[in-house]
Amino acid sequence: MSRSGFKVVVSVRKEQYRADMLYHMSLSVAKTMRAKGLITADEYAEIDTVLLAKYQPYLGRLISENA
Length: 67
Description:
This protein is mostly helical and about 70 residues long. Helices cover about 80% and strands about 0% of the residues.
């Protein structure tokens, strides 16, 4: 693999890691709100769906109930 090809792969991995991190951080807030009864299960599912669409996380799609 050329040096420039390596940089592209590293860049994609960093971007994907960032997307996964932001998705999980945002979903954590929603989980806390759900646990405290501030939002319903349906609202939580809608938030999860919106976050999946926004961040397109690799790992999030594997573990989400709404993917």
